[in-house]
Design a protein that fits this description.
It catalyses: 2 a Fe(II)-siderophore + NADP(+) + H(+) = 2 a Fe(III)-siderophore + NADPH. By secondary structure, the chain is an alpha/beta fold. It has helices at 2-54, 61-95, 152-165, 176-194, 205-213, 215-222, 239-263, 271-287, 292-297, 299-320, 322-345, 425-432, 472-487, 512-525, 569-586, 603-615, 618-624, and strands at 125-129, 135-139, 168-169, 174-175, 347-357, 361-366, 378-383, 396-399, 417-421, 438-449, 462-468, 495-502, 529-536, 552-553, 560-563, 595-600, 626-631.
Length: 632
């Protein structure tokens, strides 16, 4: 029995030891498996992180996407707020019916203005005898529309606008208002960059997200037929915003590449880095030719490099991060496609005449286009056989120097007319080309674009038109249209003052008959008072030395003055404001109907006009509400 019990105990001990050995072995094996699994998991995580970084990751992609959406929301909100401010102007523009013109060039039968013989105007005449003078006929003239006084709120806001926002900013050739708008835009971009993200080296994707988020705004600011035109600003008035947005897009894109390379090795074997390098090169191709000197001196090179650059940038961007960028790229391509389609619809091809005029000026007149544009608008011109075959593909903007058919009091043809001053390579080649003084030259006009937009000169009480040199092509059609509207009683304007500054007096020859005819028509057929003040900064050589400074010489245009001195815009604006206040008082109005100032010319002249508008005394400015429309 004892031996049996001993044997059982020995077996139990051996079994226990064997079981303990298996447990230790199993535990060791389990530990080894766990370590291997951890190593594999860590390796997989590292590989996944590396792949994510290679795909442009870094930081919270959800947060970056949300920030991009927030930028879009802020931009849309800004557009809506601005639209609310200009809604009264849009309503007035739609109410007067003149919104129907200025969209697309078209042909119409040439309207002939019948000559009005003495005693036959509207069949209404009466005879008056003035003592000591001969008997003469006095014609009934169409009464101007009633002057509608500006509201107190509108007058004060406009005065504040002129004194603060319209004043030129000395550094960037912008107004204070434009500079403030750029600063606000940049502040929104900076806020989006640093919202819940202070470490852009780790979250290098934030700069890329904010860069891509600006692409829709960038394309909307650039398009000639952009939907933003509903805001009352044509493409050339929004170009400074396009430049600001474009530089920020490029800057943030380059920073994204720099932050990525500081964290990861540069390896062009990776497709993601290949597409990123394409985007960086495209940014350089877009930025360097956009420098103002290069752009102004070599515009065609700038244009071609810009087109090639943005195409390469969008293609590279799509291959770089298709999941994130596709919605933005689709929007940009739709905006551009619509712009191209509308541009094609605005294109007119046909024959025209190119005639040399004095003062190194060309007159280009279409044989078919006579309407569809408004006074003050411009077209892009392409001439097919001037200056070499490559010139035929260039397009250049020129202001339409004539009012449309049906908006001129003058007799004769009212075809679309351009007056081109030979100052640049293209215009000099055009002036020396074989088609000068020939009829039937082939040309293409694309437009119309620009113009006063929501600023309606015909609804004001007084108008001041200020031209510098060839800027008369903007002011003359406006004067022509105002005189016509006065002949049919469809304007409230009581007086128009045209101030034209030029370097050489021979430039007047191109407009002598035209301006004289308008002045005579205004005096004979309307109650509109037209004043023309000509200023020549370079005295004619045939004048004696003592008469070459601040002298007044006979003017070739009837009922106008010609002086050898620069005009004082502030004095002219002050005098017109005083006259407008007195006129409003005679009409028993609590406030005037407004003064609209239109200006076109060199940058210094435009800046002087803007400063003068802000220098009008507050009492007079509120009393008459001064509005300024400058081109460009």
């Amino acid at each position: 029995m004892d031996s049996l019990l001993f044997a059982r105990g020995l077996v139990a001990e051996l079994a226990a030891e064997h079981s303990h050995g298996h447990s230790v072995a199993n535990a060791s094996a389990s530990s080894s498996v766990a370590v291997s699994a951890a190593v594999r998991s860590a390796t997989a995580s590292a590989v996944s992180a590396s792949a994510t970084a290679a795909r442009g990751g870094g930081g919270s992609s959800h947060g970056n996407t949300a920030v991009a959406r927030d930028f879009q929301s802020a931009f849309g909100l800004a557009v809506v707020v601005y639209l609310l401010f200009v809604t009264p102007l849009i309503a007035g523009w739609a109410a007067n019916g003149r919104w129907k013109g200025g969209w697309i060039l078209c042909s119409s039968a040439t309207r002939k203005v019948p000559a009005v013989a003495a005693g036959e105007k509207d069949g209404k005449t009466k005879t008056e005898k003035v003592e000591g003078a001969v008997v003469m006929d006095v014609f009934d003239r169409p009464a101007p529309l009633r002057v509608i006084p500006a509201s107190a709120v509108t007058a004060h806001l406009r005065t504040l606008h002129n004194r603060v926002l319209v004043r030129p900013f000395p550094l960037f050739h912008l107004t204070l208002g434009q500079t403030a708008l750029c600063i606000i835009y940049e502040a929104v971009v900076v806020f989006c960059l640093f919202f819940h993200c202070l470490d852009h080296l780790s979250n290098f994707n934030r700069t890329a997200a904010v860069s891509v988020a600006q692409l829709p705004a960038l394309f909307l600011f650039a398009g000639k037929n952009s939907a933003l035109s509903i805001l009352g600003k044509s493409y050339e008035k929004m170009n400074y915003l396009h430049r600001v947005a474009g530089r920020l897009v490029i800057l943030l894109g380059v920073l994204h590449a720099l932050f990525f390379l500081l964290k990861h090795p540069f390896d062009l074997r990776e497709p993601i880095q290949q597409s990123g390098m394409v985007c960086v090169i495209a940014c350089g191709l877009l930025l360097i030719p956009s420098i103002s000197y290069v752009r102004n001196s070599f515009y065609q090179f700038f244009l071609l490099s810009h087109i090639a650059g943005w195409i390469a940038f969008l293609v590279g961007l799509y291959h770089h991060a298709p999941e994130f960028t596709t919605p933005y790229l689709v929007f940009c391509l739709v905006v551009y496609a619509l712009d191209v389609v509308i541009r094609v619809g605005k294109t007119r091809m046909g024959k025209g005449s190119i005639v040399a005029l004095p003062a190194n000026t060309l007159m280009i007149q279409s044989h078919t286009i006579s309407s569809g544009f408004r006074a003050g608008q411009h077209v892009w011109l392409r001439t097919w056989k001037t200056g070499g075959w490559w010139r035929g593909w260039e397009t250049h903007p020129f202001t339409i120097a004539s009012a449309p058919d049906g908006a001129s009091p003058l007799q004769g043809s009212h075809r679309l007319t351009l007056l081109v001053k030979a100052v640049g390579d293209y215009t000099k080649a055009l002036h020396k080309g074989p088609e000068v003084s020939l009829v039937g030259s082939s040309a293409t006009a694309i437009g119309p674009y620009g113009g006063p937009m929501l600023t309606d000169f015909a609804d004001a009480q007084s108008v001041i038109l200020i031209a510098g040199g060839s800027g008369i092509t903007f002011c003359a059609p406006l004067l022509e249209e105002l005189v016509y509207l006065a002949t049919v009683g469809k304007t409230s304007v009581r007086s128009v003052t045209l101030v034209w500054t030029m370097r050489d007096a021979e430039l007047i020859e191109s407009y002598q008959a035209f301006l004289s005819g308008l002045v005579d028509d205004a005096r004979e057929k309307t109650a509109l008072e037209v004043k023309i003040s000509l200023h020549v900064t370079r005295a004619p050589l045939n004048l004696p030395p003592e008469n070459r400074v601040n002298a007044t010489i006979p003017s070739p245009i009837s009922h106008s003055t010609l002086s050898l001195a620069r005009p004082s815009i502030a004095t002219i604006l002050h005098d017109v404001a005083v006259d407008a206040v007195c006129s409003a008082a005679r009409m028993n109005l609590i406030r005037g109907g407004g003064i609209v100032v239109g200006a076109c010319g060199p940058r210094k002249l435009i800046q002087e006009v803007r400063r003068a508008a802000g220098q009008v005394p507050v009492a007079k400015a509120v009393a008459v509400r001064v509005a300024v429309s400058c081109m460009p």
